[in-house]
Amino acid sequence: MPRTKGYPEALEKKLADTRLYEDERHPEFTKTVEKLSMSIPHMCYQCGTCTASCPSAPRSSYRIRKFVRRALLGLEDEALTDPDLWLCTTCYSCTDRCPRDIAPTDVIMAMRNLAFKRDIIPVNFLKTVQAIYTTGHGVPNNDVNRAARKKLGMNPEPPTTHAFPQYVKGIQKIIDYYELKKNADRIVKEREG
Amino acid sequence: MREYAFFLGCIAPNRYPGAESASYKTAEKLGIKLLDLEGASCCPAPGAFGSISLEIWYAMAARNLCLAEQMKKDIALICNGCYKSIWEVNHKLKQHKELKEKVNEVLKTIDMEFKGTIDVWHLAELFYDPEIVGVQKIRDSVKVSLEGTRIAVHYGCHLMKPRKERHFGTTEHPTWLEEMVGALGAEPVEYRNKMLCCGAGGGVRGYDLVHSLDITNEKMINLKEARVDALTEVCPFCQLQFDRGQIEIEEKFGVKYNLPVLHYCELLGLAQGMSPQELALDLHGISCEPFLQKVL
Amino acid sequence: MAEKKTKKETASKKKETPKAAVSAKTEKAPAVKAPATEQKKARVGVFICHCGTNIAGSVDIPDVQEYAKSLPNVAFADNYQYMCSTPGQSKIIAAIKENDLTGIVVAACSPRLHEPTFRTATKEGGLNPFRFEMANIREQGSWVHMHDREGATDKAKDAIRIAVAKASLLQDLVPKTVPVEHAAMVVGAGIAGMQAALDLANAGIKTYLIEKNPTIGGRMSQLDKTFPTLDCSQCILTPKMVDVGRAENIDLMTCAEVENVEGYIGNFDVTIRRKARGVLTPAEAEAKGIVGGGCNGCGDCEAVCPVIKPNPFEMGMKPRKAIYIYHPQVVPLIYTIDWDSCIKCGLCVEVCGEKKAIDLEMKDELVKVKVGTAILATGYDLFPIEKKEEWGYKKYENVVTSLEFERLICASGPTGGHLVRPSDGVTPKKVAFLLCAGSRDNTGVGKPYCSRFCCMYSLKHAHQIIEKIPGVQPYIFYMDIRSFGKMYEEFYYRIQDEGAKFMRGRVANVLEDPDTKNLLINAEDTLLNRPIKLEVDMVVLAAAVEPAAETDRTRKLFGVSRSMDGWLLEAHPKLNPCGTTTAGVFLAGVCQGPKDIPDTVASAEGAASAASIPIHKGEVELEPYFAQCIEEKCAGCGMCVNLCPYQALSLVEKEGRTVMQVTEAKCKGCGTCGGFCPGGAIWMQHFATPQIIAQIDAFLIGGAK
Q1: Co-location of C434 and C485 in the same domain
Q2: Is C535 on the interface with B (CB under 8 A)?
Q3: Which end of chain A is least crowded, N or C, by CB within 10 Å?
Q4: What does the pLDDT look like over B3-53, one tens digit per residue?
Q5: Any idea what DSSP says for residue C591?
Q6: Class (C level, CATH) for A9-117
Q7: What ipTM goes with this model?
Q8: Alpha-carbon gap, residue C352 to C331, rounded angstroms
Q9: Domain count, chain C
Q10: Which residue in A93, A105, A154 is closest to B17 by CB distance?
C-alpha cells in the first residue's frame, strides 16, 4: 500500500505517495488471473500492440496494456478498482495481434470476475442477470414486438423460454446454484435503493 | 435437406423478428431446415454474464447446448454474440475435461448432462460453405437482384475472433461476406477500418452508452465517406447498435446518418423476393425506404 | 513416492541377482568375440564430482560414494570438488596406478563437455582411453531435480551403477587415422562464403566455392550502405568479389548446387550440379575449340532479347531480359539464360556472332570433387512478411520491406537512388520504419527470435532519407533499440540527433487511404501512454529473417542438424559456434543464426580457420566406434548392407565364404546393422551387445545396496 504521511487530509491527498511498493504486489493475483483467463499475462513485454488495437483506448483513459502489466505485477487493488476495467468491448483485436500470444481480452474478463467477487460491478451487468432469471432472456419480448410477430404470421412468443416458460425453472436453478440472483439483487438494492 | 436446431438468442426474436423469419425462409430455399430449439434461453450474453462469472456463463450456455444434444442436431444461429457463447462454450467444454466435469456437476441439479456430441455453426458460414450451400447457390436463388446498390459489410467481432481459436482465417482483411453480398447483385464496398468493433460489446453499451456510441459513430463516419446505401451484418446485437444507435447518436451528438442497416438474412430475403412487410423492416429504427427504392 | 518405494523394494529383494547377471555377461563377452586384449578381472574406479554446488547442492555425495563402493567390480571410489581440474584429473591418474584399475567412471556432467578431458587422464594413468565411462549426474540429474535431493541422489546412484556395469566390460580400442584431402568446399558465396573461401585459399588450400545464383556477393551486394560507418556496401564488397574471381586456389562455381555428399571428414566426395547457364565462359569456349570466344560480358545479347522479366536482385522492381546479369559488377561477368522465360528465338545467338558464347541447348552437368572439409554459408531470406496481415504488405503498395528499401535508396537501384513511393513515384516526406516486423513473435506466424540487425539498419535507413530528402521525417517504431556492437550506440545517438523520431511502441496495424495511398499507422506511444494515429507516405517493414530457402536440403546432404528456430545447429553455442556435430563440416555467417556483417565476417574467418586445421594436419583420428563382423557367425545374407545409411558395408569372399566387411572410415557406429543382424554377427565396438545388456540389467535389476 502507498504510505500515508499523517498530514492534514487535503495535503495527504495532494502529496500522496505514488511510488510502487513491493507489498502492493500479490503474486496469487497473477496466478488466479492466469488460471481464469487460460492465458499468460506474465509474458507481456509492453509493446502496446493491444492498446493500439483497442477501440476504447482512443476515447478514454482505458489502457489494456496497463491492465496486463498489473496482472503481471500482481497489482490486484489497482486493477480491480479502476473503473476503466469495464470499458473493454471484448472485440479481441488485441488478442489477435498480441505478438506474445497473450489474450488480453480474456485477462480483462478474468479480472472482472475477480472484481465481482468484491461486489465491484456495474449495475447494468446485474440487470441482465435479473432479466434472464425472470424470463430466460437478457433482452425480453415486448408488446410492440409481439404485435409485429403476429403480423408476420409468427407465434407472438418465440419458441424459446418465452413460449415454453417451464424451462425457466432450470435456468433459475443454475443461477441459484451460484447464489448469483441473491447477490445481484443485494448489490442492485445497495446501489439504487 | 440438412436440419439444424435454430438457436434464436434474444435480439432477433424480440427486436428484429423479420431477421428470424427471413432466416427460416432463406435457409429453406438453400436446402437448410431450421428446427425450433424449444426452451432455449439467452446464450447468455457473453459480455454481461462472462464478466460476472465465466463459470456461470459456461453452465448457462451448456444448458442450451444440452437441448440441442437431446434433439441430436447441430446448432445453427444468426448472432455473433450467441456464437461467442454457444460455439465457444461447446468448444471449451469439449477441450477441457475438468471444466466439463465442473459444469456437469451443476447441470446434474436440473437432470442434464453436457456430452459434447454436437457442433455449432453460424448460418452465414453454412451459407458460405460450398459443401453446404456456397456462393453460387445463393446467386442462383436471387429473384430480385440488388444491382445498383452499394453495400458495406460489418463482420462483427465474436464470430471470427480470436482468430486462433476460430476457423475463419484472416481477421484483418476478410472478404467472404462481401462475396456473399456480391452474389445478391449488390456492389460490396470497402471502407476505412472495416474490422472496427460496433462498440456495443463487453457490457459497454449498458455501462457507458456515449462511449459505446462514440465507437459506433467512428464507424458511421467511415461508412459515410464510402457513400454506401446500406450496411449489412450477421449479428442482431451489432444491428441494434448501428440501427437504434443512429437514433441515439443523433440524440447525444447531434449528427444524423440515416444509413439503413440490415441483417444478411434480411438482405438475402429481399433478394429472394420477400417483401419489406414480410421482413418487418418497419421495425428498424432507421428507415430502409431509400435503400428499398433503389432495389424494388 | 509410492513408485519410488516399490522400486527400492524390488532392488533390495533381488539383491543377489545382479552380481550373477553381470558376471555371467562378463564371462560371455570373450565367447562372442575374442577381444583385442586379454580381459583381466574388472577393477573399476568411481570418481564423483561436486561441480561446486552444481551437483553437491542437490546430491548427497558421501551417500553416493558409499553406494558406489558397494557395487560389483568397484575397487575404488572417491569424490572431488571439480573433477575436471588438474588435481581432479591427478586423482584419476594416481588411483589407476595405486589400485590397478581396469576401468574408470566419472560421475559428473555431460560427456559432451568433459569426456575428452577424462579420457586423456585415463590414458595418462596408463590405461587405454576408451576404458573410461561417464555418468551424467548433472544435466540429467542435479539440475533437473534441483528441489528433490533424495530423488536426485537416487538417480545419481542409478547412473553410476549403469556406468560401472559398462566400465567393467570396456575394451581397449585404437582410433583409426585417415588422411585428409588437401581441399575444402564452401557452399554459398555471400560475404561469409567469400571470406571463408579467401581465407582457405590464402592458407594454401584448394577451395571449391559453390553458389546457386549466377553471381557471388549474396545479400550484401543488395545493400546500399553499411552501418555504423556508412561506407557503401558494394564499394567494400566488390574488391573481395574480384579477389574471389581471381584467386588461384579458388575454383568458383556459380549457377551450381550441391547434389550429393558421401564420405566423412578428410574424404568427402561431393557431387555438384552445374546448372546449364546457356552461356560459355572464355575458358569453356576454348576447351570446345572456339578460340577467342566465350562471353566477354558485352551485353549485346541482352539488348536484343525480347523477353522482359522482373530482376530478383532488384526485388522485382527493375526489369531484366531472359538473358541477363544481376547488375554491372557481377563476378563472374558471364551472362545467364533464364530457361523459364527464354523463348529460344535465337536473336542472342545471332548477335553474339563469332564469340559463339551462347548455347541454347546446354544441359546441366554433374561434377565430382573430393574435399577434406566443408563450410556451409547458405545465408538467409526475408520472412514472407505478408503473413503478418496487419501491416498490409503486398496489399498496400507503399508498404515495402527493408530489402526493397535498400534497392530504392541505392544509386545503382531501379530509381537511381531516389526514394519514391511505388504507388505514384512521389518522394515520401514521412516515412515510418516498423521494427520487429515478424521478429520476437510468439504467435506461431512470425519468428520467436530477434533478427539482430534490423535495429541498426533501420537507424541507417533513417539517416539515409534525412541525408537525401530535405524536410523528410523518419519515424522509428521500436520496442527496444538493440545497438550492442562497436560504435553502434554512438550511431543511435547520432541518428536521434539528426532528427529521427523514436516511437516506443509496436505497430498494431496499418491501413491505407484508398485515395491518396497514404498509410495510417495505429500504435501506442507506450512512454506517453497514448494511442498514436499517424499518417505517413511510406512504411518500411524491418522484416524478420529466416534460413535461405534451400538451407534444409543442403544441410541434410551434409548431415547437419538445425535448432528449434530453423537455423543450422552449431556444435556448441558458445565454445564451438562454427563447428557442427558432423566432423569436418563447419558453419559460417547467418545460416547459423542472424548476424550483421562484422559478425558474419568474424564467423567466416573462424570457420575457415577451423576447417583448415584437419587439412593442415593432414590426417584425422576417427573414434573407433566401428561395427565389426564376427565372420564365423556371418551368414553373408547381406541384409545389413542395404540398411547402412553410410554405405560402409559390403559383401566379400573370404576363405570360400561370403561375409560382410566394414569400411571402418565410413562407419559412424550408428548401430543400425548391429541391432538388425539376425545372426548376431555384428559387434559394435564400444557399444557392444553384452555391454549394453549389462547396462540394462544393472538398471532394471539393480545393484548392491
Answers
A1: yes
A2: no
A3: C
A4: 999 999 999 999 999 999 999 999 999 999 999 999 999 999 999 999 999
A5: G
A6: mainly alpha
A7: 0.95
A8: 20
A9: 4
A10: A154
